[in-house]
Design brief:
50% strand, single chain, 17% helix, five-stranded mixed beta barrel, Hypothetical upf0131 protein ytfp, 105 residues
């Protein structure tokens, strides 16, 4: 599985703490969303906005148990974010790839 990240999860020390490893990644863009600060938490979240772009990373080879760890980190169960499938454009090849991403609920 692939995961598009754009905030704290772009930081290797955070990935290492959450997953126990730093997955291979490449720069990518998510269109149709903008990155805004969520005032109650102070962290970024993705909000749908036509014509907007978010720069981030495409994490590769995410395992199912790691997806569960990421869901916990992003408080999906608590309703802070939802995980959806998105299409991102990689910067190295300009290819479009399907990935998971956490967006505002």
């Amino acid at each position: 599985m692939k995961m598009f990240v754009y905030g704290e999860l772009c930081k290797p020390p955070v990935l290492l703490e959450v997953l126990g490893r730093v997955p291979i990644s490449e720069p990518a863009l998510l269109d149709g969303f903008c990155r805004e600060v969520n005032p109650p938490t102070g962290y970024f979240h993705a909000v749908r906005r036509p014509g907007a772009l978010i720069a981030g990373l495409l994490l590769k080879s995410i395992k199912m148990n790691e997806l569960e760890k990421l869901d916990c980190f992003e408080n999906v169960e608590g309703g802070e974010y939802e995980r959806i499938e998105v299409d991102v454009k990689t910067l190295r090849s300009s290819a479009r790839k399907t990935a998971w991403a956490y967006v505002a609920t």
